[in-house]
Each structure stands twice: as C-alpha cells, then as structure tokens.
Amino acid sequence: MHILKRQQLQIILSWIAVLLWMFLIFVLSAQPAPRSNGLSQKVTEVIIEKVGLLVPLDIKTSTTIDLIKRFNHIVRKCAHVSEYFVLGALVTNAMKTSKVPRFKAFIFSVLLCVFYAISDEVHQLFVPGRGAQMMDVLIDSAGAIAGIGCIFLIKRRNSTPYVE
Questions:
Q1: What's this model's pTM, rounded to 2 decimal places?
Q2: Given this model, what pLDDT does residue 68 score?
Q3: Cα 62 vs. chain centroid, distance in angstroms?
Q4: What percent of the chain has pLDDT over 90?
Q5: What contacts 52, CB < 8 A, 6 or more positions away?
Q6: Is 43 a residue whose pLDDT tops 90?
Q7: Residue 81 · residue 150 · CB < 8 Å
Q8: 148-164 b/e with 16+ CB inside 10 Å = b?
C-alpha cells in the first residue's frame, strides 16, 4: 500500500513539473516584443562578457553593442531549443513514471511537445509585437525531440537487463 501511494505521488509530481514548465514557457511567450528582446539582449551581453574573459574579443573591429546585435538572434533560438529540451525531458519522464509503454511514451511525448510548440506560436499572435513563426515550431520540436531522446538514452543506460 505504501509503495502504491509513493508511485502515485511520483506520477503527480512529474506531471506537475510538466505543467509548471509549460506555464513558464507561456509566461515568457506572453512578454511583448520589446521586453522579450530586452531580456535576451541582457543574456547575450552576459554571455559575450563571459566569453570575452576566456577568449580575447577583437574590440577594435566590433563593439559590445555590435556583438550583442549579431549574437542576440542565436541566443534567442538557443533559448527555444533549451526550453523545449527541458519540456521534452519532463514529459518523457512523466510518461515513464506513469508506466506508459516505451513506444507510446515516445510518440505521445513528441506529439504533446509539438502541439504545445504550435499552441505557443498561436498564443504569440495575440502578444503585442510578436508573431507566429513556423521555424520556431521546428526549432522547438527539435529541442523537445533531443530532450526526449536523452531521457530514453539515460533510462536505457540505467536499466538493468532482465536475467533469468
């Protein structure tokens, strides 16, 4: 009985983690374009500063502002991949915790993440200065599939083979 309650709690907590992550993605997507871009520019600036400490940047040919402008788009797309990588991993973990069979867990995880990526882009149609981008759905989906794949590889590596 105690084991059953523990399993139920694990299932509930794993799905709560999925919902909380989806909420975070929703909140970030609800930011108007200037605010969202400002946030990513700050992140880009921090990255450039840290990289500049490790690798000398040629400031004579590029100012920090030029570097931020050049790399901001890349940082934004990496954020998409990262957000959905985590979502894919969380959904797959929740499916596995819920005892969904391996193949179905993979398919349902991919579908849930892709549909959420599509709904996220539709949501952005209603946010000032934002819009829907098919490329973002593809980038999000690639991130989710990578996260899903990592969880499957980790679970496979950590599982012990059945021995009679």
A1: 0.84
A2: 76
A3: 31
A4: 59
A5: none
A6: no
A7: no
A8: bbebbeeeeeeeeeeee
